[in-house]
Amino acid sequence: MTRRVVITGIGVRAPGSSGTKEFWDVLTTGRTATRRITFFDASPFRSRIAGEIDFDAAAEGFTPRETRRMDRATQFAVACTRDALADSGLDFGTLDPHRVGVALGSAVAAATSLENEYLVMSDAGREWLVDPAHLSPYMFDYLSPGVMPAEIAREVGAEGPVTLVSDGCTSGLDAVGYGVQLIREGSADTVLAGAADTPVSPIVVACFDAIKATTPRNDEPETASRPFDGTRNGFVLAEGAAMFVLEELEAARARGAYIYAEIGGYATRSNAYHMTGLKKDGREMAEAIRAALDEARLDRTTIDYVNAHGSGTKQNDRHETAAFKRSLGEHARAVPVSSIKSMVGHSLGAIGSIEIAASALAIRHNVVPPTANLRVPDPECDLDYVPLTAREQRVDTVLTVGSGFGGFQSAMVLHDPEVTSV
């Protein structure tokens, strides 16, 4: 019999919030947390706005040595892990460490620290030959993405499978999906899974400037992220993280754990087409959705809410709309769809996990978060995109999807464990 996997602990760091409760409050009140970039002088850039987090490492419990050793994204991941552990009520000291795993997603890993160290060694780029005398003793920690999940493993004492997943903007979905697979196949009983990215740095901003993927709406930072809106002109870069405690269902029930949701199905596909381009018919995302529903053994009509990728680019929004129609049929017009990127921006590899958190909380609270800033609907995006205001309704099953550069398309189905399979 296939082992069923559930979420019993959640930790979130997202723009406008310092924890899971504040994060949910931002979403349900429809507040936007995007602003002008404050981390560096962004005046030379085309897009000068982002979703930044007011993160105090010392207040979060990190020592000066830990703060120096860990990149900002790693600090986010560890902070969220601590929150998820506390939320789960699970005593990791009683677990067999060989049966505990870690699956972490990240698109750009320690890009922030790598850039900062280059600036130090090159004297802000003035020296062609960098001076190794100024090299940080933790440079390897910044260079190797695998250090990020290793830090989480150290935090919880995990000696089972420990993995980093880097699939661009679907990394957060794919890492959790991999964690689910580890438990289902019997390689682990408990997995810390999620993602973290802190890409609000000059080099990453410049990369997206070059391809004009981010919005230049710098005079309106609070309303610049406009998924599915006819006036949208690019996404808003952001940082963030979310981590989950994943457990086998019966073990969680046996210890009396609160269960946020069961992860019933997950699938990922590639369009094998273009690094940044998307086919208009949404076929590959639709196939991922169908496969995830099949794995969950649920009919498409059971979906109560779709948490969209909704990046705020015309290409993505129209591709996604086509994918929903293709995979959900007539039910696509009956089910509410929304994008939380309208409020917290696009944190690249982390956003998939942050959206899983939003999906699980939607099930817990029976509330569908809104698509903020959606005032001028795009005629080609003609589904129920829940504009401006959250909607209270019964939510037992959620479909959450992700789309990433490189052609990655992923889908996950979360549901109340009591939902009946087809």
What does this structure look like?
The chain is α/β, with parallel strands linked by helices. Helix content is 32%, strand content 18%. It has 13 helices and 14 strands. The strands form 3 sheets. A 10-stranded mixed beta sheet has the order 5-4-6-7-1-8-14-13-9-10, with helices on both faces. A two-stranded antiparallel sheet has the order 2-3. Strands 11-12 form a two-stranded antiparallel sheet. Helix 11 links the parallel strand 9 and strand 10.
Question: Quick summary of this structure?
Answer:
Helices cover 32% and strands 18% of the residues. The chain is an alpha/beta fold. The strands form three sheets. A ten-stranded mixed sheet has the order 5-4-6-7-1-8-14-13-9-10, sandwiched between helices. It has a two-stranded antiparallel ribbon with strand order 2-3. Strands 11-12 form a two-stranded antiparallel sheet.
SSE topology sketch:
Layout: E1 5-13, H1 20-28, E2 35-36, E3 49-50, H2 64-69, H3 72-88, E4 100-105, H4 111-121, H5 139-143, H6 147-156, E5 162-165, H7 171-184, E6 190-197, H8 202-210, E7 240-248, H9 249-254, E8 261-270, H10 283-296, E9 305-307, H11 314-328, E10 337-338, H12 341-344, H13 351-365, E11 367-368, E12 391-392, E13 397-404, E14 408-415
Helix pairs in contact: 3-6, 7-13, 10-11
